[in-house]
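User: Quick sanity check before I run a bigger batch. Here is a single chain. Can you write out its predicted 3D structure?
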Amino acid sequence: MSDTAKIIVITGAGSGFGALAARALARAGHTVYAAMRDTTGRNADRVADAEAYAAEHGVDLRTVELDVLSQESADAATATVLAEADGLDVIVHNAGHMVTGPTEAFTPEELMAVYDTNVLGTQRVNRAVLPHLRRRRSGLVLWIGSTSSRGGTPPYLAPYFAAKAAMDSLAVSYAAELARFGIETSIVVPGSFTSGTNHFVTGGHPAEQTVVPAYEERYAGLMDQVAQRLADLAPADADVSQVADAIVEVVDAPYGKRPFRVHVDPANDGSEEVSRVADRIRAEFLTRIGLADLLAPHTAASATVPAGLPAAGPSAARHA
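Assistant: Done. Predicted structure follows.
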């Protein structure tokens, strides 16, 4: 492995953004663990596909059993990677689940299940991975967000949108809390790619249907209309592989120079503009309260800046 090659774990890497990113990162020379659940059951074919891809292209693409709904699974997957690869440099939080339908139709338990995968899953994985990264005083936590957190939000996707917004908020807070450990944070924000992923195909629906007819009477065929209108917004050259390319660019960027947030939004739903303002306000506020050093990771050679002493500089402005 070269000095710049990384050991990377990507959650939810059986299909979609995760599978594409795993292959792209492996082609870029990294050791990549495509993490997915049920590797000996329903995802056995995806494990075989990853093995075949690695053999055909001569890359280091591996798989590991990881169910983000289980802390035990996250701990075991991390232990496996550390034992096999003798380290871990990057965790990519990609696992997610979408549901569609009138918001009222979902039970609180169904909303909790979406939140469990998209938000609590990242917390389980962080609790497994971060002790290693903190001991090393380096690493990258890369979150796959969604423009829905701050951009256009069509109806009938509220549980997913709410969960992705919560995950984005968690990522922003983690960024400051990990900076003094030398751990970087980047958020890659895809737009509404309606093809090339399984989000819409495998998305769930409310199990209890009694409320749905009332909405169908007023909003007949709306879900299909939303999907088609989102697809119509995308330019002809929009390709889901652009998200994987953006992930590779972030990982391959020099330590301390990685962007805090990268949008990949061919439809331009407004998220990038809103995020630019929000991230600027975050940087300005942390500077005002004397915590500007939390805007960029501390290198191993740098001394920890005491709380209350501003440390604004080019890297802080860049990371904002």
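The first helix runs from residue 16 to 27.

User: Great, the batch can go ahead then.
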